[in-house]
Amino acid sequence: MWLGTCDLTSFDPKTRYVTLHPKPEEAVETATKHFRDISELLRPYTNCKVTFIETPPYSIQQWNSKQKHPDTNLFINQDSALSRYIYQLNQNIRTINQGLEVVSPSLSVDLRHCQSKNSKNRHKRLADQYNFSWYKPPINVDIKPILVPIIQV
């Protein structure tokens, strides 16, 4: 099960631009709560096994660039913050998955390209780079209406 991508960002359907959620810490906690709720809901069903998939990294700046935003440099800081919140959310997902005795597949490994620079005896690691062009456009889905009928059963 994969949630979280659209919880951390806001999408404006008129402009098709994406921005960081106004309260990303709250969004991480809300998504984590949804994961826990789902795992608790399925706990009585011993034949049912769920694995929560980690949220892959993505770029607000690159998305908005594809949407022809006039100044995508405005989103550099949002991308940096988004990476931190994705990391935090993924840590929570790993913890929940450990409790379920499952391991999430690392879907972003195919998108990641780690760059290093060697200079004599010094080794410097440059920033990781991701090939975001492989991503499909985001789909913003509110999980609450999906969970409500399931929980009420």
Description:
With 153 residues, the chain is an alpha+beta fold. The protein contains four helices and six strands, in the order E-E-H-H-H-E-E-E-E-H. It has helices at 24-42, 60-66, 76-99, 144-152, and strands at residues 9-11, 18-20, 112-113, 116-119, 122-125, 129-130. Helix 1 runs parallel beside helix 3. The longest helix has 24 residues, at 76-99. The two termini are 20 Å apart. The mean pLDDT is 79.
Keywords, please?
4 helices; two-stranded antiparallel sheet; 153 residues; alpha+beta
Q: Within the largest sheet, what's the order of strands? A: 1-2
The number of helical segments is 4
Helix content: 25-40%
Could you give a short account of the major beta sheet? 2 strands, antiparallel
The shape, in one word, is elongated
Unreliable runs, pLDDT <50, ≥5 residues? none
| Strand tally | 6
Mean pLDDT value: 79
Main structural class: alpha+beta
Number of structural units classed as domains: 1
Portion of residues in beta strands equals: 5-15%
Radius of gyration: 18 Å
Distance between the termini: 20 Å
What is the element string, with H for helices and E for strands? EEHHHEEEEH
